[in-house]
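wait is this the right file?? whatever heres the structure
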């Protein structure tokens, strides 16, 4: 008889999830010592596919750790504030929060620079800020105000900052990945040594266009880092229920891949520094099995504290105990706080002062966003057609002016 009783079925599914390598409760790495204001630590091991792993021994100065703490805490407070504003109906529509996953973008930016390109999914608030944008631009955009990143016309899923090569959040699942390959082609063509980062989630990892992008990037040796932010749950569905092979770093097949502890900013920084060096290497890198070069797949083992979006309570397909355990054992902010305080690099009061400054910044951004204007009606007709193309598209002249324009 194939059917199982309710309790037995749940036990069977739970065992299968554990076997499939779901949300890990692995703790932090080990501190090796402090010399002056430089801390040396051992991060959790990297899992690799067709490539040797980078060193797990990493170092960071007190100044770097303090900056990581400020960045992580700033992103967390911004997202928590967005949650409260949404519940107060000051934010409408779609809203996908990033709290819990902050170490990925902070570690990425610690390793790369603004000459490198980034394109991501609709969970994009933190990416905009770490690409040099402001909290005000994010909050105002969420509220549909003119001071927003996209002048109040894009909303939660469409942040954008061209001046630092952030090519926005994409509302269509997985659509950003082929665009990321195109950005990598531009970097290759210009020959300036830049790399393109195409970020997607475990829910998008099964999209066909992901594999098409892998194939093209590998054929053309594009300097692209494909990043799967594996927070272990899609829209209400655990990774093991949607993916036969949840080892996303191996999905490139012919491309190298690496799995990283995405809750540890130092591990993430190490992974991205290694991936960029690989992706923009001059000439092929000879590995044991074959010769490979350029694109690489990174899987960030991370976790989202909120639901998939604000319409998802996030607790119907996972237990509250699981969320609580991840917070206690793997929280990226508390990890950096522990590194600083336990190793005598900062006093708890110093970190509290940073938190106070950040809270004041967020509160100020919220008040300024609330006071900002909504876009005028005529803005509905801008940024649609380029003026005077001299052509007709679907019966509409490109230089046609609507009465509101």
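ok assuming it is, sequence goes like this
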């Amino acid at each position: 008889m194939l059917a199982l009783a309710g309790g037995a079925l749940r036990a069977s599914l739970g065992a299968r999830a554990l076997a499939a390598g779901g949300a890990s409760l692995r703790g932090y790495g080990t501190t090796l010592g402090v010399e002056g204001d430089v801390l040396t630590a051992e991060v959790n091991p990297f899992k690799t596919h067709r490539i040797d792993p980078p060193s797990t021994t990493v170092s960071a100065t007190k100044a770097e750790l303090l900056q990581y703490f400020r960045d992580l805490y700033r992103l967390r407070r911004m997202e928590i504030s967005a949650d409260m504003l949404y519940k107060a109906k000051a934010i409408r529509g779609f809203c996908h929060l990033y709290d819990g996953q902050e170490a990925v973008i902070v570690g990425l930016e610690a390793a790369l620079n603004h000459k490198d390109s980034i394109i991501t999914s609709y969970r994009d608030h933190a990416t905009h800020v770490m690409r040099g944008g402001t909290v005000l631009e994010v909050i105002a955009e969420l509220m549909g105000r003119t001071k927003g990143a996209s002048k109040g016309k894009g909303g939660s899923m469409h942040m954008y900052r061209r001046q630092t090569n952030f090519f926005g959040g994409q509302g269509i699942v997985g659509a950003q990945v082929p665009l990321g390959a195109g950005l990598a082609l531009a970097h290759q063509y210009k020959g300036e040594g830049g790399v393109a980062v195409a970020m997607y989630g475990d829910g998008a990892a099964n999209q066909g266009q992901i594999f098409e992008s892998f194939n093209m990037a590998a054929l053309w040796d594009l300097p692209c880092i494909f990043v799967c932010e594996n927070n272990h749950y899609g829209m209400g569905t655990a990774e093991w229920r949607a993916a036969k092979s949840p080892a996303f770093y191996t999905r490139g097949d012919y491309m190298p891949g690496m799995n990283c502890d995405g809750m540890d900013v130092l591990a993430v920084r190490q992974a991205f520094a290694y991936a960029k060096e690989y992706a923009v290497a001059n000439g092929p890198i000879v590995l044991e099995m074959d010769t490979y070069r350029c694109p690489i797949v990174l899987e960030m083992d991370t976790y989202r504290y909120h639901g998939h979006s604000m319409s998802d309570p996030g607790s119907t397909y996972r237990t509250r105990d699981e969320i609580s355990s991840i917070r206690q054992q793997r929280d990226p902010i508390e990890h950096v706080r522990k590194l600083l305080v336990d190793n005598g690099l900062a006093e708890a009061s110093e970190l509290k002062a940073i938190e106070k400054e950040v809270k004041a910044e967020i509160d100020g951004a919220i008040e300024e966003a609330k006071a900002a204007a909504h876009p005028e009606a005529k803005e509905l007709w801008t940024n649609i057609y380029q003026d005077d193309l001299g052509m007709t598209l679907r019966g509409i002249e490109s230089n046609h002016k609507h009465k509101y324009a």
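The chain has one domain: 27-306+320-374. so i think its the right one actually
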